[in-house]
Amino acid sequence: MTPRDDERITVEVTQESSSRSVIYRGQLPALIIGDGTDEVVLLAGPKFQDASLAKEFAIALAHNALTFSGAGNRRMQDFQIWPGDDPETE
User: Fold this and answer.
1) Residue 29 and residue 24: Cα distance in Å, rounded?
2) Do 12 and 29 contact (CB within 8 A), yes or no?
3) pTM > 0.85: yes or no
4) 80 class by beta-carbon count within 10 Å (0-12 exposed, 13-18 middle, 19+ buried)
5) Dist. CA 23–CA 29, nearest whole Å
6) How many CB atoms lie under 10 A from the CB of residue 54?
7) Contact predicate 78/68, CB 8 Å
8) Which helix (H) or strand (E) holds 3?
9) pLDDT value at residue 34
10) Sheet containing strand 39-43, strands side by side
11) pLDDT in tens, 32-82
12) At a CB cut-off of 8 Å and minimum separation 6, what does 55 contact?
């Protein structure tokens, strides 16, 4: 994971990227996102309110993941050959 000038952590999706839903310490629901080197654990706290917030976050995350997927689909359709995959440009 790489810090950028705007102080956000950016992670390029690669073949090593992963995400999984798990039960974490103390039986807490969690989402682990990894880049093949580091992992970030997003977890719900132990209270009912925490579970409610985690549920709403998960819904928003799923929506944004579908939007991200759609953007990738559109980008793949825009190119016959991806600029980075073109042997003539290397």
Assistant:
1) 6
2) no
3) no
4) exposed
5) 5
6) 19
7) no
8) strand 2-3
9) 93
10) 18-24, 28-34, 39-43
11) 999 999 999 999 999 999 999 999 999 999 999 999 999 988 888 876 665
12) none
**14 to each of 18, 35, 70, how far by Cα in Å?**
9, 7, 17
28 beta partners: 24
**CA angle at 32 for the pair 10 and 54, rounded to the nearest 5°:** 100
Q: Decide if 26 contacts 16 (C-beta within 8 A).
A: no
Q: Which tokens sit at 61?
A: 């995350």
The C-alpha atoms of residue 9 and residue 11 are separated, in whole angstroms, by 7
DSSP secondary structure, 23-71, as one string: EEGGGEEEEEEE-SS-EEEEE--SSHHHHHHHHHHHHHHHHHHHHHHHH
Task: Kindly give, in sequence order, each residue whose CB lies less than 8 Å from that of residue 47, ignoring residues fewer than 6 positions away.
Answer: none
